[in-house]
Amino acid sequence: MQYLIYLLVYPVIWVISMLPFRLLYLFSDFVYFIVYRVIRYRKKTVRENLILALPHLSDQERLIVEKKFYHHICDMFLEMIKTMNISKEEICKRFVFKNIEVYKELEKQGKSVAVICSHYASYEWIISMNYYSDVAGYGIYKQLKNPYFDKLVRKIRSRFNAKLITTKQTVPTIINNNKNNVLALYGFASDQSPKAKGAMHWSKFMGIEVPVHVGAEMLSKRYNMNLVYLNTKKVSRGHYEATLEILSDNPKEVPNFELTDQYLKLLEKQIYEAPEFYLWTHKRWKYRRDNV
């Protein structure tokens, strides 16, 4: 059944990937209508999240954010599909690293680099950073249940010279690279919710105390990696800018969880500035101190 679904859907995906950007965004407007008005995809979750995270806004203001968010997520989903056939020149024009020289200087130190990012703006095109790297690049992702679509996602993202590894493969990969003196670039999206039971650290995120992922910080400490935050902004439809901010070039000297808290504060600042570009469909605040 999973293979049949893949066979039926793949031709549609391929056709979408061949659309020029102007038609792609016209189609995105149609998809928005279906997703937001007809299917009402996770609308309840989105509204609950917006009330929790942005209580200072009025109902009308949150509704504006909600509609803009659905427009954005439809754009981003189709941009991911477009990645199947986008050229290197095109993606580098549309996703610009404003200070890539910061990363190049870190590379010269002879240490691996952990880039910590979030589900904000375009997290699909972040992987194009590998074009600027002289070392192996690894994107850490959550494996899809459908093995055929999982293979497709891996194929799409590997176009950027990246090696995709699952969350379970992350530690063994880093250990193996470290043992063989292989320098690498690792990308972590660390803003989603871990399970509350056994969480190493709780922190305030958007004013709510929640369990947080600390893997990027802990692995940076253990394997002496530079830790960098990637601040991505949406400039216009289909155009993004990313700025690298060094959290620490010696994480071992920083008290535990301080770097994770610093990352969350930087992300909060982004969300408050333009909340419509954050991923509101996931239950980020499912576990809270007041209900665990």
Automatic annotation (TrEMBL):
UniProt-recorded Gene Ontology molecular function terms: acyltransferase activity
Keyword Ubl conjugation annotated: no
Main location: membrane
Compartments where located: Cell inner membrane
RNA-binding keyword on record: no
Entry-linked Pfam families: Lip_A_acyltrans
Annotated TM spans: 12-35
Stored InterPro entries: LipA_acyltrans (IPR004960)
One Gene Ontology cellular component: plasma membrane
Record-level GO BP terms: glycolipid biosynthetic process
Keywords: Acyltransferase, Cell inner membrane, Cell membrane, Membrane, Transferase, Transmembrane, Transmembrane helix
PANTHER family: LIPID A BIOSYNTHESIS LAUROYL ACYLTRANSFERASE, PHOSPHATIDYLINOSITOL MANNOSIDE ACYLTRANSFERASE
Protein name: Lipid A biosynthesis acyltransferase
Lineage: Bacteria, Pseudomonadati, Bacteroidota, Flavobacteriia, Flavobacteriales
